[in-house]
Design a protein that fits this description.
Blueprint (H helix, E strand, L loop, with lengths): L1 H22 L1 E9 L4 H21 L5 E6 L10 E7 L2 H5 L1 H12 L10 H4 E11 L2
Antiparallel strand pairs: 1-3, 1-4, 2-3
């Protein structure tokens, strides 16, 4: 009886974990730095993008995020990879509303040297609705 109960619990734990994993979705952006404006780009992502995601995690609007930096080359002509992961379809579907709320509450963009995002960075590829298996 004890073995049967252990097996049933194990089955439900595994199935719950699998269901949670397959419901996850991510948005991924690959960003190149324009005109040697690395400092402005990094400042922007650390003081805007990252801050918004930290606030989104506290409100359970997203599951996680990653701000990654690599050295660009011919094969990978981007410097930053931005990943936002949503735990489920509801978080993903509500992302625009939730981030608009957080942007409004943030008090506006923080910029270095008064350069706007179009001056210092370009998203060379963005991919939404990336499923986790």
């Amino acid at each position: 009886m004890k073995t049967l109960l252990t097996g049933i619990v194990f089955f439900f734990v595994i199935n719950t974990f699998h269901a949670q994993t397959k419901d996850k979705q991510s948005s991924i952006d690959f960003v190149t730095v324009l005109n040697d404006n690395h400092a402005e780009t990094l400042y922007y992502y650390q003081n805007n993008w990252k801050v918004l995601r930290e606030a989104a995690m506290k409100k359970d609007y997203i599951e996680s995020y990653e701000l990654l930096e690599i050295k660009p080359n011919e094969a990978t002509p981007y410097s930053f990879i931005l990943i936002t992961t949503y735990a489920n379809q509801n978080q993903y579907d509500s992302r625009e509303i939730h981030f608009e709320e957080l942007i409004q509450a943030s008090g506006g963009l923080k910029l270095l040297n008064e350069k706007t995002p179009n001056d210092f960075r370009k998203v060379i590829h963005g991919q939404d609705n990336v499923k986790h298996w």
